[in-house]
Here is the input.
Amino acid sequence: MKKTILLTGATGFLGSHVLEKFFKEGHKIIILKRSFSNTWRIDHILNKVISYDIDKDNLEMPFKENKIDIVIHTATKYGRKNEKTSEILKSNLIFPLELLELATFFNTDTFFNTDTVLCKYLNYYSLSKKQFVEWTKLFCNKIKIINLKLEHMYGEKDDFTKFIPFIIKQFLMNAEKIKLTKGEQKRDFIYVSDIVDAYYEIFLQVKKFNKGFYEYEIGSGKNIKIKSLVQSLKKLTNNKNTILSFGDLPYRENEIMESKSDIKKIKEEIGWQPQVALKEGLLKVIDWYKNYKDLKK
Here is the structure.
């Protein structure tokens, strides 16, 4: 049965992929964006969905004008673009809290929240994300909360402030040198289509959930040293020139040295598991960026 989905973050990396998947499956999609949002990721589909500009329209309007079945919240601010702390807090805590209040008031069935595996006190981003998760638990007697803790995702249409796109760009542009940490930290990288499939599989089975709080980790269940990943990307891009200067940069404060998702629960309860191996996913992304018109910007 087709549903009405309210999606935040549709102009962003993950949200644009979620939008494409749910639209392709025939669901009615309503997106929340700002009037000045850069819509390049979804321009090909924008006139086929309903959109509200949250800087102009009251946040109640989508709920009053549509019977929304599911909210999928992917919008976020990472703090990588010199945003004020208060802006990060508004985006990652206040805005979704207002959305959750409205979803509860208008009897929306389910609220999907996009969480992070990062520890609470690593930075402003992770703190604000974890604080919102705590708030969702106060609402879970009124609505189904599906909290998805994502590992390090990568894929087409990501921006160059993210690690993998940044490194790929340096290799494709034949940068003289890349300054890096020692690269001993291990990370779990998961391809974006696998993440989207996890959202959709849970969505298909949402009837089996009662009102309450449910949480799943989403990743590959494997990890790799950053140093090994960068060396693999150098090889996969056929880069012969760029010098990799490991150890030039210090680890960030409170650096996590090992991260790996536990996907046993989602495998057993939902039947989802990742399908795209790391090398396969990286090759797809490299191929996409080779043809990206704004690579040199």
Observations:
- The chain has a mean pLDDT of 96.
- The radius of gyration is 19 Å.
- The first strand starts at residue 4 and ends at 8.
- Residues 77 and 83 are 8 Å apart (CA to CA).
